[in-house]
TrEMBL record, chain A:
Its main location: membrane. ATP binds at residues 380-382, 461, 503, 526, 557, 637-639, 748, 754, 778-779. Residues 571-598 form a coiled coil. GO terms for molecular function: ATP binding; ATP hydrolysis activity; ATPase-coupled intramembrane lipid transporter activity; magnesium ion binding. The active site is at 380 (4-aspartylphosphate intermediate). It is found in: Cell membrane; Early endosome; Endoplasmic reticulum membrane; Membrane. This is Phospholipid-transporting ATPase. Mg(2+) binds at residues 380, 382, 775, 779. Pfam families: Cation_ATPase, E1-E2_ATPase, PhoLip_ATPase_C, PhoLip_ATPase_N. Residues 46-100 form the P-type ATPase N-terminal domain. It comes from Athene cunicularia. Residues 801-1047 form the P-type ATPase C-terminal domain.
From TrEMBL, chain B:
It comes from the Eukaryota. The keyword Transmembrane helix applies. One of its GO terms (biological process) is phospholipid translocation. One of its GO terms (cellular component) is endoplasmic reticulum. This is Cell cycle control protein. Pfam families: CDC50 (PF03381).
């Protein structure tokens, strides 16, 4: 009984992220136990390897401030504001440097605190990892030291349930057979156990002294970031760890495009305004009595200054004055909104899956609003639409169909192909056995025929092995390279496992070479029918093929099984080839593939299996909702066309009345690709003319909708550039067809093809926003390619979830994610961005107008405190809260009426019309504030310029806050608190700011200004009037648009509003 | 490329050794909290901008604005105001002042006018300036609030009027103080060929807080010693402690003419309160009808910057001065709101009719 399993392992390569800079030779040589080779054999160049310290943190205590500042100022916006700030410091500008310095400092600090906190967490995790004790062997003794002190070449001992401190080579284990079980849960989440074998030469070493005596060198590749390629011996597939970083990057790119489209225009608006004002200033000043009247003389240095220098300084000063229109705080608000807003997604109870105990994960919050803009959904089939919970349904041997529970009744034909078939299924797999007790378990199995637990990375295999068990053949275990199976007669048969030609998604098959107890060598192969049939030379191909096709139509997953007998000579050839390929240091994958191709041919077909994969719950409902929402759903799968099509019918992607268009290899063989494409486009476009789109009711029933089926081969033909150079032609035609199809099914896709098709759509001329959802490693490429990548936290490991932007437990959660959260996020962020723009137009435009009245002297209208705090505190929190809480219609309604999603489709709320409206509103309000106050002041109130500014500012703060209040459809107590609270805060602040002679200020211009203004009746009347007048057009626009051109959302709002009202009315009347 | 690693889990290239005999994996339950806030289900008020809810507010706003506007117009009409542009009335003086070397030559001029009716109530006397850019930035910042608070300041923001060449600081310093309005305007009531000077109040015209908090004389036993070591601004005729010889509490920095001047105006055309008519004797009810004369000591040059000078007599009402803007604006917006209300009603009714028509 192995209660303690010890492994002696050798550290071969450590933290690869810090390695590799030093000497880029092709391979590295490692001396085991740091024993240098005997002198004279070869010139010894000691290679320097980094230590085993894990550094995931970005900053250290010392470099945090400079490095973080550098990182932050690399951002163009921050840099811009830094320049503005420096300009204010250097030249004499209208506003004090505080007005732009303080917000910048605020933004920088908030970001730095956030990043610092994240880095602190990383430091903590690093330390925990670096300081965890490791046992390693030094001079024949076991020594304990911290993980970070490990060096390349150390021999490490790992006990059971410990974590590997670094990448290792497996030298020997305490198990006699030199094996160990390893889970790669922390790599890819696959909790299945994988067996590893010790290097044959060192397997015999068992204690420290023996190990220590080892003299060996190891040649290996330099560490590569791509772990898929980094395999030293026949070790596991490791996860490619780089991808998430890439995913984040693509995320950043896309979001910028959507949100800040107006930004550059704003900046140029600032520059234009500054330029106009500078020119006007010099025109105005050209008369000397204006430039320097007797009462307002210049200082000597000012007089002497060069004209152009003066003009340039003035230009900069105007820039400083108007730069508030792009508030630095907008970036931090948007970021906070996204960051905090994403919590609502992770908190959502309805998206939490009880079975797996998993809720949604947000890997990047940058894409929140894109969730409301999805036009194409690319979904994987297996594990995404279906449960990936396989059940063995039947097998077909030579045309005879066997169903497991029927066979249990003993009605079986005995013949040798059948035995071979069952043995093939028992042997050709990579399933591991996890038994409760390795000694007793064997007996238990024999007696009860109850299975022990099978573990595999592929659920199909488990289903097959379990299914075969019900048919009488039980796979017991793999011991000392012998596979043991229990046959119907309860005899144990032993097969020596010679080679495993492992599965990959390109070949779509796997093989094993085994030697039976009689000495015959068999190659069993199992794979997709398309990859098996071409390699078969005999067997009942037609019967089996028809059965396979029948099963596929029913939505079952089929596999074909074939074998061939190898002579000893053939085997030794094959073995040699394999060995060479495996030991190749370069292009190992490619060479292996070539060898596999050579070996796996001339099969004899045995039969086929069918495994059922049930649909996920509510998959059909979800797809229907997505289609109603105007989202095109494409299914991309590696499965056969018939299987996939059956699933598509089952999940209502295709309906009974959907006309299916096929673009498959079979069809292309009949006609040329050209003709097929043109025929299809003709069919599609003929109906297109008569097609009337009712955006409200979604897909109307009388509308003919099309479903397209395309397979991988046809796709690659379309994608292939033609010789005559007109490469884009077919693509355009193909896209045109796709655009008119409500659903598209792409079957027989290789992983890269999935990404290719996503890219094709993404880059088509409408630039639609795409979403890819999948659960397996084969979906990673597509998840990374799409704008938004969603991973299902499913059975096939966590790779997809980890590489995605968002991860959800089930496909059905996509509905709420897009229709509710996505819609909300989009509505919120679009209001946030435009409102920010609006409120700053309102803020700065009066300042611009004032220049015409103060001789273009850059005199500010508002006091420094107001300039500084306007965006930081007076008007920032209500909009942030709106960005987090707004629900223009209830979440339930959004879920119930998927067509509402169309209201925000194609960036509807951030289009030019909306932008112009907001700009108009901002300019209108600014004009009202300024000229209203101007005429009010005209000959009436003998207050100074600061009172004027304060009056304008008061109207401004109230108007923009009330405008937000008008836009808010969802008033929780927090909204009330924030909106009214910020107004109250403004008043209290103003009272305080004007109430005291502030000792640290060199001016007291605001002293009692606010109170004096409030003590005047006309000022009150003016403020009330101006606020009303500024808000009227917006209210009017809202009411009129609602009446005349209501959007679907508004209709729904009214509908539910009236339902509620009539309910109350009837309640009241009943009472 | 290596530095793009950032997340913890990506780095964990560590593989876990698991004993297959014991290995049981438990999922940590991260079942979310189902508080109303986290589920976005806080109880909320969901207002809708439907015609039904908006129409009353439109009509109410309209009615309120109209009523308010009418009141304001009536009130503004009750205000009496007379204004005289005297910048050209005394052409000799304006010419004289164009040359700054004549600064100490006195120049007087008179403006006669007749009041046909009594002006009842409090009468205020203003001086008005046109085209005088008090809001120019260079001008606005050229002052020292600390100095005016009576503090001793080393650093000041008064350029270019901080000190003389010999280092003597100016008191008060800065362009604003230097250019203080220094015409003296006296109003005479001509009764039976004898001119009676209308009694006026010099104090109580500025903000109480300015007079008592923001402007303070330096502390000393008397004013002239308080300002010892300083000199008058270059354009002034007399030092700051002689601004009002008669009233100690209106002298120095707390002189109300100075205080009022120091509050710079928002626009280039402005008026400042100069005096209030003291309501005693025959002026107890205001200014009686009759002939009046302004006697002006003309010191302030305006022709150089094409400016104008005015003297204004006005009463006030609760709604401010004679400015009709507020009243008109209220009437206009009230009308607009009411009309919009009607338009919305019309559309609403029409649409409803249409809807019922279709339903039939």
């Amino acid at each position: 009984v192995f209660q303690r399993t010890e492994f002696h392992l050798l550290q071969i390569k450590n933290q690869f992220m810090c390695a590799g800079e030093e000497n880029w030779v092709d391979s590295r040589t490692v001396y085991v136990g740091h024993r240098e080779p005997p002198p004279g054999t070869e010139a010894y160049i000691p290679q320097r390897f980094p230590d085993n310290r894990i550094v995931s943190s970005k900053y250290t205590f010392w470099n945090f401030v400079p490095k973080n500042l550098f990182e932050q100022f690399r951002r163009i916006a921050n840099f811009y504001f830094l320049i503005i700030f420096l300009v204010q410091l250097i030249i004499d500008t209208p506003t004090s440097p505080v007005t732009s310095g303080l917000p910048l400092l605020f933004v920088i600090t908030v970001t730095a605190i956030k990043q610092g906190y994240e880095d602190w967490l990383r430091h903590k995790a690093d330390n925990a990892m670096n300081q965890c004790p490791v046992h390693f062997i030094q001079h024949g003794k076991l020594v304990r030291k911290q993980s970070r002190k490990l060096r390349v070449g150390d021999i490490v001992m790992v006990k059971e349930d410990e974590t590997f401190p670094c990448d290792l080579i497996f030298l020997s284990s305490s198990r006699g057979d030199g094996t160990c079980f390893v889970t790669t849960a922390s790599l890819d989440g696959e909790s299945s156990h994988k067996t590893y074998y010790a290097v044959q030469d060192t397997k015999a070493f068992h204690n420290e002294q023996e190990i220590d005596a080892l003299h060996a060198t190891i040649e290996c590749e330099q560490p590569q970031p791509d772990l898929y390629n980094y395999c030293f011996t026949k070790k596991s597939h490791n996860t490619n760890c780089l991808i998430p970083g890439v995913a984040i990057y693509t995320g950043m790119e896309t979001k910028m495009a959507l949100n800040y489209q107006a930004k550059s225009q704003k900046r140029s608006a600032v520059e234009n305004k500054a330029l106009i004002n500078t020119v006007l200033k010099y025109v105005w000043q050209s008369e000397p009595f204006r430039d320097e009247p007797w009462y307002n003389q210049k200082t000597e240095p000012e007089r002497k200054r060069n004209l152009f220098l003066r003009a340039f300084t003035d230009f900069l000063a105007f820039m400083v004055l108007f730069n508030y229109i792009i508030p630095v705080s907008m970036y931090v608000t948007v970021e906070m909104q996204k960051f905090l807003g994403s919590y609502f997604l992770t908190w959502d109870e309805e998206m939490f899956d009880e079975d797996t105990g998993e809720g949604p994960l947000v890997n990047t919050s940058d894409l929140n609003e894109e969730l409301g803009q999805i036009e194409y959904v690319f979904t994987d089939k297996t594990g995404t639409l279906t449960e990936n919970n396989m059940e063995f349904v039947e097998c077909c041997i030579e045309g005879h169909v066997y169903v497991p529970h029927v066979i249990c009744n003993g009605q079986i034909l005995h013949d040798c192909t059948e035995d071979l078939f069952f043995r093939a299924l028992c042997l050709c797999h990579t399933v591991q056995v996890k038994d409760d007790d390795s000694v007793d378990g064997l007996k238990k199995n024999q007696l009860s025929r109850r299975s022990c637990i099978y573990i595999s990375s592929s659920p199909d295999e488990v289903a097959l092995v379990e299914g075969i068990q019900r048919l009488g053949y039980t796979y017991l275990r793999l011991k000392d390279n012998f596979m043991e199976i229990l046959n119907r007669e309860n005899n144990i048969e032993k097969f020596e496992l010679l080679e495993v030609l492992s599965f990959d998604s390109v070949r779509r098959r796997m093989s094993v070479i085994v030697r039976s107890s009689t000495g015959d060598i068999f190659l069993f192969c199992k794979g997709a029918d398309s990859s098996i049939f071409p390699r078969v030379k005999e067997g009942k191909i037609d019967q089996i093929r028809s059965r396979v096709e029948r099963n596929a139509v029913e939505g079952l997953r089929t596999l074909c099984v074939a074998y061939k007998k190898l002579t000893a000579e053939e085997y030794s050839n094959a073995q040699k080839l394999l060995q060479n390929a495996k030991l190749a240091l370069q292009d190992r994958e490619k060479k292996l593939a070539e060898v596999y191709e050579k070996i796996e041919r001339d099969f004899i077909l045995l039969g086929a299996t069918a495994v059922e994969d049930r649909l996920q719950e509510k998959a059909a409902d979800t797809i229907e909702a997505l289609q109603k929402a105007g989202i095109k759903v494409w299914v991309l799968t590696g499965d056969k066309m018939e299987t996939a099509a059956a699933t598509c019918y089952a999940c209502k992607l295709f309906r009974r009345n959907t006309q299916i268009l096929e673009l498959t290899t079979k069809k292309i063989e009949e006609q040329s690709l050209h003709d097929v494409l043109f025929d299809l486009s003709k069919t599609v476009l003929r109906h297109n003319g008569s097609l009337t789109r009712d955006t409200f009711s979604g897909l109307s029933t009388d509308m003919q909708d099309y479903g397209l089926i395309i397979d991988g081969a046809a796709l690659s033909l379309i994608m292939k550039p033609r010789q005559d150079g007109s490469s884009g032609n077919y693509r355009e035609l193909f896209l045109e067809i796709c655009r008119n199809c409500s659903a598209v099914l792409c079957c027989r896709m290789a992983p890269l093809q999935k990404a290719q098709i996503v890219k094709l759509i993404k880059l088509s001329k409408e630039h639609p926003i795409t979403l890819a959802i999948g659960d397996g490693a084969n979906d990673v490429s597509m998840i990374l390619e799409a704008h938004v990548g969603i991973g299902i936290i499913g059975k096939e490991g966590r790779q997809a979830a980890r590489n995605s932007d968002y991860a959800i437990p089930k496909f059905k959660h996509l509905k709420k994610m897009l229709l509710v959260h996505g819609h909300f996020y989009y509505v919120r962020i679009s209001e946030l961005v435009q409102y920010f723009f609006y409120k700053n137009v309102c803020f700065i435009f009066p300042q611009f107008l004032y220049q015409f009245f103060c001789g273009f002297s850059q005199q500010t209208l508002y006091d420094t405190a107001y300039l500084t705090l306007y965006n930081i505190s007076f008007t920032s929190l209500p909009i942030l809260l709106y960005g987090l809480m707004e629900q223009h219609v209830s979440a339930d309604t959004l879920k119930r009426e998927p067509s509402l999603y169309r209201d925000v489709a194609k960036n509807a709320l951030l289009r030019w019309r909306a932008f112009i409206y907001w700009t108009f509103l901002g300019v209108f309000d600014a004009v009202v504030f300024f000229f209203g106050a101007y005429f009010l002041f005209d000959n009436t109130i003998m207050f100074g310029n600061w009172t004027f500014g304060t009056l304008v500012f008061t109207v401004l703060v109230f108007t923009v806050t009330l405008k937000l209040a008008l836009d808010t459809h969802y008033w929780t107590w927090i909204n009330h608190f924030m909106i009214w609270g910020s107004l109250v805060f403004y008043i209290i602040f103003s009272l305080l700011w004007g109430g005291i002679i502030w000792p640290f200020l060199n001016y007291q211009r605001m002293y009692y200004v606010f109170m004096q203004m409030l003590s005047s009746g006309p000022a009150w009347l003016g403020i009330i009037l101006l606020i009303t007048v500024s808000l009227l057009p917006d209210v009017l626009k809202k009411v009129l648009c609602r009446q005349l051109w209501p959007t679907a959302t508004e209709r729904i709002q009214v509908k539910y509003f009236f339902i509620v009202v009539s309910f109350f009315v009837s309640e009241v009347s009943n009472n | 490329r290596y530095s793009s690693f950032s997340r913890r889990q990506e780095l964990d290239t560590l593989t876990k050794v698991h004993n297959p005999l014991i290995g049981t994996k438990t999922h940590p339950s991260r079942c979310p909290d189902n508080s109303a806030f986290k589920q976005q289900k806080l109880p909320a008020w969901k207002p809708q901008l439907t015609p039904a809810t908006v129409l009353p507010s439109f009509f109410l706003t309209g009615a309120f604005c109209l009523a308010m506007g009418v009141c304001l117009i009536l009130s503004a009409n009750s205000v009496r105001e007379i204004q005289f542009d005297y910048s050209d009335k005394c052409s000799d003086c304006s010419k004289l002042r164009e040359n700054s070397s004549n600064w100490n030559k006195e120049c007087h001029c008179s403006v006669n006018f007749t009041l046909k009716e009594d002006i009842l109530g409090d009468v205020f006397m203003y001086y008005g300036l046109q085209n005088f850019y008090q809001n120019h930035r260079r001008y606005v910042i050229s002052r020292s609030d600390a100095q005016l608070l009576g503090r001793n300041v080393n650093k000041s923001y008064c350029a270019p009027f901080t000190t003389y060449h010999n280092g003597t600081p100016m008191a008060p310093c800065g362009a604003i103080a230097n250019s203080m309005f220094n015409d003296t305007i006296d109003l005479f009531y001509n009764l039976n060929s004898s001119a009676i000077q209308v009694p006026v109040l010099k104090t109580g015209n500025s903000w109480w807080t300015d007079k008592n908090v923001k402007f303070r004389n330096p502390k000393s036993y008397n004013l002239s010693s308080a300002f010892a070591g300083t000199a008058r601004p270059p354009y002034w005729h007399k030092p700051v402690y002689l601004l009002d010889k008669e009233d100690e509490r209106n002298n120095g920095y707390v002189n109300e003419d100075l205080i009022i001047w120091m509050r710079v105006s928002a626009f280039a055309t402005f008026r400042n309160l100069y005096r209030r008519v003291k309501r005693i004797r025959q002026f107890a009810d205001g200014l009686p009808a009759g002939n009046y004369t302004f006697r002006i000591s003309y010191n302030f040059p305006v022709t150089k910057f094409k400016g104008r000078k005015h003297v204004i007599l006005s009463t006030v009402a609760w709604s401010g001065g004679s400015n009709p803007f507020l009243g008109i604006a209220y009437v206009v917006s009230g009308t607009a709101a009411t009309l919009t209300g009607f338009v919305i009603t019309a559309i609403h009714l029409k649409l409803r009719k249409k809807k019922t028509f279709f339903q039939k």
